[in-house]
Amino acid sequence: MAISIACEGLHKSYERRVRKPGLLGAVRGLFTAERQTVPAVQELSFSIGQGERVGLIGENGAGKSTTLKMLTGILLPTSGRLEVLGLDPWRQRRQLAARIGVVFGQRPQLLWDIPVRETFTLLKTMYRVDDKLFQATYAEAVKRLELEPLLGVAVRKLSLGQRMRCDLAASLLHAPAIAFLDEPTIGLDVSVKEQVREYVVEMQRRFGTTLLLTTHDLKDITETCDRLLLLDRGRLLFDGSLRDFERKFATERRILLELDKPVAESSAAELSRALAPLGGELVEHHGHRVVVSYQREGAAPALTQCLLSLLPVSDIVLEKADIDSMVASIYRRGSAEAGAA
Domains, the chain, ranges and CATH? Predict the structure, then answer.
């Protein structure tokens, strides 16, 4: 598989002024400002193959946007090696720009005062898109993102959600080799988010585009990506498939039961004793609801059989941790370890 993105030991630091408190500190800062070096990305190494769909996630300040800006040539890395489509993003920005598509959250690339249709036509000329390809990508965007009513409207008159849909379409009109999508569903309602995800997946499948997507809506990742990169304070914490991520971090699973009648305290104590050797723990028994948690791989069948034999069960659901709760748990654990250190 050809490599679309390769970075090794990537590092980016910023300098910021540190001002002393009080009026005297403010005055001194005008003449002798102290500066502090702040690392945004540290020793970041990964590669992405042609046609891969990769999600880049992390908390605010984890280094996601900084990484994307280095990959697109907007920022110069402090150190490390970086290649995108065989080019140096910073030194060969023009050559790279013709081969990538970019969405940066609430910073649209659409021209503010002209109708959306004219912006699309201008982008066709800028990227030198041939008529056949443009007709295909334009028609797909208009249909899947429901842009027809917006084509004659000036961009400044669009809502945030409407601008985001148009901006996403604009970034993919030339069928780029790589699409860098930073928060592409921000400002969209649930049904429109689904349209956007379907459109991104269809365009990626149709043209073999390499996809690198960052978002705080982790459903964007599970619906569009096969691989996950997790950043924590500028460092790569995890790199692997969504299935591997689940195996590694989804340690707790739960069994939820609805009962025909409530559980008595004496029955709850008996149930706890029965579940313990099987790796289960009774975490909730309130009214007609019972919740059992377990971590042991393959424990579900034995636990389910035990519960059905001891309780008047009317409904049962096996639940595993979703990606949101897994990521939240990882960061809570990281914060606790940092605090202890």
Answer: 3-8+42-248 (3.40.50.300), 252-320 (3.30.70.1150)
